[in-house]
Amino acid sequence: MPIPPSSSAIHGIYDEDVKDKPTFKELAKDYARFLEGADLAGFNILKFDVPMLVEEFLRADVEFDYTRKRIVDAQRIFHLMEKRTLRAAYQFYCQKDMTDSHSAEADTEATMEVLLAQLARYD
Asked: What pLDDT is stored for residue 35 in this prediction?
């Protein structure tokens, strides 16, 4: 299938680069053997890469059992270890410490400052 130009702009792979290459289905058994006994690691691997691999192996009618693999997802570690609170956002975006957190006025003011900092930071 043709690679959309918007995708090529992100990953740098164009139709011309893969026109004479084998399909995943043609290589699926080799990939499955290569991954036997291997653990997997990546960023967002649990929500993107592993489901994509499972689906592609299913379409190729090749067994791929990831349930016995150890999978390390750096994104999950990041989300578990870094605080996701208004106080953390205020520190990150505004480089200020919240002194009266959990009072309605302080939370509202901090939220407004965080939102304004986000608008200034992101397009």
From this structure: 96
pLDDT at residue 99 tops 90: no
CA distances (Å), origin 46, targets 5, 49, 50, 64, 84: 27, 6, 6, 15, 20
Q: Is the overall model pTM greater than 0.85, yes or no?
A: no
Can you list the pairs that 29-38 forms with residues at least 24 positions away whose Cβ atoms lie under 8 Å? 29/62, 31/57, 31/62, 32/57, 32/62, 32/63, 32/64, 35/64, 38/69
Distances (CA, A) of 63 to 29, 58, 59: 8, 7, 10
Distance CA 122, CA 93 (A): 11
Check residue 1 and give its pLDDT: 83
